[in-house]
Amino acid sequence: MNTRIKLFFLAAMMASTLVTSAQSPNIKAMSTEFDKLLSAQFKTDETGCAALVAIKGQIVYKKAFGMANLELNVPMQPDMVFRIGSMTKQFTAVAILQLMEQGKLSLQDDITKFIPDYPTQAYKITIENLLTHTSGIKSYTDGPEFMKFIKEDLKPEELIDKFKNLPMEFAPGTKWNYSNSGFFLLGYIIEKVSGMKYQDYIEQNLFRPAGMTNSLYGSDRKIIKNRAYPYQADGDNVVNADYMSMLLPYSAGSLMSTVEDLYKWNRALLSNKFVKRETLEKAWTEFKLSDGKGTHYGYGWFLSQVQGSPSIEHGGGINGYLTNGIFLPKEDVFVAVFSNNTAKGPDAVSTKMAAIAIGKPYVRTETPVPAEMIDQYPGVYDDENGTLRMITKEGTQLFSQRSGGEKLKIKQFAPDKFFFDDYLTVLTFKRDASGSIISADLDDRAEITIYKKTDKPVPSHVEIKLEPEVLTNYTGEFELSPGFVIAVTLEGDRIFTQATGQSKVEIYPESDTKFFLKVFDAQLEFVKDESGKFNKMILHQGGRDIEGKRVK
Question: Considering the domain boundaries, does residue 363 fall inside one?
């Protein structure tokens, strides 16, 4: 992928702004395809979405589907306001770059220049490390301890105190790992350098100049006109989203906006309204690790591709909302899709819309795997980091499952090439000169991960039969961390688990204390206490063992 993306001057784009009448039928046909994609995912009487597509400086599609408020029966409208979650990071990044251009900081400054008491554990952690998720600072939202204070209105320095003494994950610049902590610290540095509150800086220096009249720092107390109400899944049901203080995401994820305001932001960036052209090019250039390996991330944006065309994009996920925005500079195409339900992600549909907009739709038709070849694929595949991917077979259907992940169907569309149901990720099996499969390349648009085939046996679990009166002993609720509970229920002779905010999943006994899941690579172990009751559960998943105590 070309990691240095050339920008278009606004004047050059304006020359091709108008969509001619000869092109109108194409726009109409595209709109029909967009309607099909969005209406299939966002039903009329369910939670909804707002969507926008712009081509060469003109909005060609702007619609809403589904409901903004289920309780009041309010339909979604295209200009409704959503929390944008981690899309906030690009605003934080541009604010930092503005201060850099003003000479108030350098990207190579050690963060202790602005936060003197921050314990860097003998490392130099630069502002650039924070911008590129290469600082090694653990993300404060990853651990179960985050749930303990998720409802508290903490000041920035109070939240920093919550994570600053956690062990470093790696030496700065040597690895990439997404860190909300890094972008939280950037917000605090913006306040220190500018003398303004983070939200005031963003409002005055970014929102207003871009004409983003429907964008703001998130608040649950403030009356926000046209706010889309947030929802999440609770098993098979939809419920109101859990509360989280909007002071906690801060500069890593607290902003709110509309799809059209995000488009205004895109235009303002391209007009050099906020930072110089070369500065924005740097933000949209892939950051390299100390060993030269790419990260597929710049300053606040992911760098990827859609059907071979370079893309600059970012999504956001926060209680009750999922968002995604994609910009294709070569074709000057911008797509944004916002959802008000964390069970309905916009990533795949927005990418498909972008592909249609550039005339390269994702079209993959399943072709049966020849019977004589289907047994060649199953096995255990290993990447360079030791992550396993199991390819298994059930009848004539092949499945792929990353260690600790969900078991997913894969479908062939060309010899040795398979797609997942999202149509975007492709798994390509490679053969040696003799025709034997030696590896599998996973292309998720951002990068290609090579999994080498091993001689390791596919992990297997043998299901046994336990009578309902035995299964009853395991039912109850087990708390694995504050606010995160796994409920175990019995339906006839079948036993199920349901984690907080997740769907109900059946588990299968392989002994009188151990159970396994078929849809995820995870196992549950129940432990007896001295009285003979199963008052403890251990979740084994992704190489971690997490204990939970019975609370009900």
Answer: no
DSSP line for 268-293 = HHHTTSSS-HHHHHHHTB--B-TTS-
Quote helix, strand, coil % in the chain, to nearest 5: 25, 30, 45
Q: What is the pLDDT of residues 373-412, one digit of tens each?
A: 999 999 999 998 888 899 999 899 999 998 777 889 999 9
Task: Report pTM.
Answer: 0.84
Mean pLDDT per 10-residue run, the chain (552 residues)? Answer: 37 34 66 97 97 97 98 98 98 98 98 97 97 97 86 96 95 97 98 98 98 97 96 90 96 98 98 97 97 96 96 97 98 98 96 96 93 95 90 93 86 95 89 96 90 89 88 92 86 89 85 88 90 91 86 88
Rounded CA gap, 88 and 345, in Å?
17
Domain extent at residue 544: 468-550
Q: What is the CATH number of the domain that holds 497?
A: 2.40.128.50
Q: Are residues 97 and 226 in the same domain?
A: yes
Task: Say if residue 408 is in the same domain as residue 476.
Answer: no
Question: Distance between CA atoms of 529 and 214, rounded to whole angstroms?
Answer: 56
Shared-domain flag, residues 65 and 130: yes
Strand order, beta sheet including 321-328: 58-65, 49-55, 333-339, 321-328, 309-318, 302-306
Give the C-alpha separation, 4 to 2, whole Å. Answer: 6
